[in-house]
Amino acid sequence: MYYIKESAKSFEITAEDLATAVPEQGFGVLHIHDLGNTLRNKGQSFSEECRVFEVCNPVYASKVLAQDIRLNMALPCRISVYTELGSVKVAMILPQEMLTALSNDPIIQSAAAEVQTKLKTIIDKAIQ
Question: pTM of the full predicted structure?
Fold first, then answer.
């Protein structure tokens, strides 16, 4: 259900490299949520770092939404860069598994498979 890779690079460098890798696969970064800072700024004790990148490819998004508008709740795709006990990780929920749980439409499943391949490439590039 998850695709998680460990990075040998620092959290900051990994996050920068992820941002650089996203457009190389035809996606754009819509927003970056800094969950670590948000939690700390709200008075919560949170020792790890965590940034969630919302990424989107408009061709795939429109294809999926044209088949089932309800899937807007599963978009955009998210890739996280986070620390866990001293390790830096880059991860996502696998789009193919998530959308298969929500729809058996072959067009949606095909798009999810293609998106998943591209997002794995992005993550693999970010950790190199």
Answer: 0.95
